[in-house]
Amino acid sequence: MKKLAKFLFSRLVVGILVLFLQIYWFVAIVFQIGEHNDLLSFILKTFSIVVVIYIINKDDNPAYKLAWVIPILTVPILGGIMYLYLGNKKPSRRLRKVLDQEFRDTAFLLMQKKEIYDEVEAQDPVVAGQSEYISQYAGFPAHKHTQTKYFSSGEECYEAVLEELRKAEHYIFMEYFIVKEGSMMDEMLDILKEKAANGVDVRFMYDDVGCISVLDADFYKKMESYGISCMRFNTFVPVISTAWNNRDHRKIMVIDGHTAFTGGFNLADEYINREERFGYWKDSGIMIKGDAVWNLTVMFLQVWNPLRKQKEDYKQYRPKRYMEERPENDGYVQPYSDTPLDSETVGENIYLNIISSAVKYLYITTPYLIIDNELSTALCLAAKRGVDVRIITPGIPDKKLVFLVSQSYYHKLVDAGIKIYEYTPGFIHAKNVVCDDKIATVGTVNWDYRSLYLHFECGVFLYNTSSIQDIYDDFMKTVEVSRQVTREDCMKPLPALMTQSILRVFSPLL
Q1: What average pLDDT does this structure show over 324-345?
Q2: Which domain holds residue 361?
Q3: Other CB atoms closer than 10 Å to residue 439's CB: what's the count?
Q4: Are 435 and 362 in contact (CB under 8 A)?
Q5: Residue 2: CB partners within 8 Å, gap ≥ 6?
Q6: Cα angle for residues 66, 373, 207 (degrees, 5° grid)
């Protein structure tokens, strides 16, 4: 009974109820006015038509346009106002203003060294072009003198995380989408509390919407009581708004400026399989040591400092300050970030560039496969020109409706010669791409509209690093325990096909 009461009065349930009541009263008032006032009804419908014309002419993804045009034209008395209120994909003006200013003020810290670009260009002009794109449009340069280690599971990465945390002497920066209390968090907290007590600067940031169902509202206060500087990103307020649509989906950990982790796994027991939710949870992560950690350090501080209204010299956190010995060269490493603050879809464009440059093979793992026409066409063209394109998706999904939409893309991709596999042991949460034995990316960017257009994301672009072979080997081992999707599997009963068709139309809004 206590568990039920706790659930019913939780932030999630109360928030949903408040939002539902707002939507109900808003819709009821608009329809009531529209039914009894012909002039206002005419004005609302005319406004909806104007909004549709605006959407059609807007420089935006066609799928996102269609997802809005249909409901607006279906309910014109309401649709235009709803778009005016909820159609904006950008974060709030306040958040944009604060973060944009910080990005501009710190851009000089992330200039690409010409000698590194020249080296990459001499080896492969196409890869140099990709690196240049990331440097110019994401704002993060490529580095040498960096070692990378790939982890094929969350639990494997977690052991390395604990080991490195215990070594921390100066500062620890952590930024995660989901944080859930349990054995994993308890173990990590023991280390963080000890480090904070010994004078280590520990900073912890989590996405409030991502944690709304698993953390109490005052979790950050508990962390502060341990001496850990803690902040909620984009605090959830139960008011109809698109502000909570732009979530911090990044996973970043920086230790003393010379060691960092990122990848797919969050801070919850299911990510290291201490709690079973959807069969075996397969994730991935990558550890970086050396110069390239600087990108992730700046990435964290560019959000932390302006939101905490904190000014400090970033240069004090450079890798070399506390690095005993500079690592030897092991290829080129370029951590990058993608934000909804601008119109540049960095995560998607990096994927598109890798697809277009593939010659021999292109292997992808993703928990969701809800892609726009650009990605779909690029993948099909790669397969048609002879590239071995393979994609692994979950065998046991975490969201059944989303999985149903993902499966709706199978038919076109399989017909083009792409091999799609479903991971039979459970849920695959890794977001990896590996191509032609020379380039790869590991990070947080899912192949869906949320990651590609709405969320704050991060990843690591790799060129000629030894870890690329490990990513390839992990993919091939995963294929061995996955089931290949056939053309017959793509043939669904009529009701399922109709459901998929409807869901696909509105997938950019899911």
Answers
A1: 91
A2: 346-509
A3: 26
A4: yes
A5: none
A6: 75
